[in-house]
Predict the 3D structure of the following.
Amino acid sequence: MRPILAKESLWVYPLFAGVGGSFGYWLQGVEDRQLKILAQRREAILEKRRRRDEGTLSKVEEAGTLAATS
């Protein structure tokens, strides 16, 4: 039976863990940035809806709203 953890191949495991950990750390940063952007867009949309409901939209925003609904 072949040994799984041969002494010649032990250096591969920390290397693989380091590469995998680095990729996971980078991916977590990507997710955090995307969630922040989505939160900012959501707030902008909610603010725009509040202004529309109050009737204080600018002409450009009003034209965009009318074009989007028709």
